[in-house]
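Archive maintenance. Older records in this collection stored only the sequence; we are now back-filling the structure field for every entry so that each record is complete. The fields below show one back-filled record exactly as it appears after the update. Entries are processed alphabetically, and Casein kinase II subunit beta is next in the queue.

ARCHIVE ENTRY
Title: Casein kinase II subunit beta
Organism field: Strongyloides venezuelensis
Length field: 201
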Amino acid sequence: MSCVKYNFVERHLSKRCNKWLVKVPDEFFTDKFNLVGIYDILGIRSLERALSLIINNNEEIEEHDFTSIEKNASFLYGLVHARYITTPEGLDDMKRKYVKNDFGRCLKVSCFNQAMLPIGLHDTPSHEEVKMYCPKCEDVFHPEVESEMEDEDEDEGLSEDGSEDSYYYIDESFCDGAFFGTGFPQFFFFQFPFLRPEKKE
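Back-filled structure field:
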C-alpha cells in the first residue's frame, strides 16, 4: 500500500491563503493544555492523527487516508494558532508581520496607508473567512488573496473503512477568521499600545 511522505507545516504555511498565519512551535502542540476543548470537536482519534501529521516532519501516511487527515490537521493548526498568537511569543511573531505590513494597508486616503491586522467575525470555525481590521478608521475589510498557481486537489478524503473522516470541509483558498479570533486586534494593541495609531478627528 502506497504511503505519502509529507511536511505538513511547511506546505500549509506556503499556501497563499495562509500567508497571515505564523509558525506555531511543536512544543505548543504537545502541551495538552493548549488542546483543551478541541478534543471535544475533533474527537480523540482524529485529533491524535492530525497532531501526528503536524509535529512529525515527513510522517508516512497511507495514501487513501491522507486527505481527511490533512483537512483535520488544517483545522487543528488553525484553532491552536488562535491560542498561540495571544501568548508573548505569538504576539511577537504577529508584531513582526504587522510592522512589515504583511497584513496589508488600509486603502482609505484618510488613513494614510495604515497597517492592518487580521480579525475573525466569529470565534466558531467554518462561518467566515478572515477579515482585515484598520486600527485608524476601525473598519473591517475583505482581504484580497492571490489565487494559487496550481489548483489543489479538493477531493474529500475517506478513512480506512471507507467513511468520511474529516471534520473540516473548507475550500483550499479559505483562511478561517476563527484562526485569529474576534478579539485579536484589541488584545494586540493592549499589549503594544505604542503601535496603536492616533484616531481620526
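Update note: The chain has two domains: 8-85, 103-145+174-200. The longest helix spans residues 66-84.
Entry marked complete.
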